[in-house]
Amino acid sequence: MGTVGDAIGQMLPSAVGIAISPLPLIAVILMLATPNGRTNGVAFAAGWTAALGLATAVLVLLGSGTDASTSSGGPATWTS
User: Fold this and answer.
1) Strand, helix or coil at 10?
2) Distance between CA 39 and CA 26 in Å, rounded?
3) Beta bridge partners of 69
4) Would you tell me which of 1, 32, 50, 64 could form a disulfide with 37, CB atoms 3.0–4.6 Å apart?
């Protein structure tokens, strides 16, 4: 039976992601209220999308060069 610390450790990344997720939406709404709102909003959305795409590409490239199996042929423990 695990401890409370283990449960918090497993839930923390999801909780941080959920807490951060409304920030881009709030930023776009605030930018749309500025004099150059449409331009600022589009630029922010394009930058946000490009940054997420770049981060995803880097992580995929870093992960594709590693061996995800153990010597017995099963998946490595870090893959879960």
Assistant:
1) helix
2) 16
3) 75
4) 32
Whether the CB-CB separation of 69 and 75 falls below 8 Å is answered with yes
> 36 to each of 31, 43, 53, how far by Cα in Å?
8, 11, 26
Three-class DSSP category at 30? helix
Q: Could you list the pLDDT tens digit for every one of the 80 residues in the chain?
A: 467 777 777 888 888 877 877 877 788 788 888 888 888 888 888 998 999 999 999 988 877 766 666 667 777 676 66
Tokens, residue 12:
């923390």
Pull the structure tokens for residue 64: 């594709």
Relative orientation angle of helices 22-32 and 37-64, to the nearest 10 degrees: 160
* Domain regions of the chain by residue span: 10-39
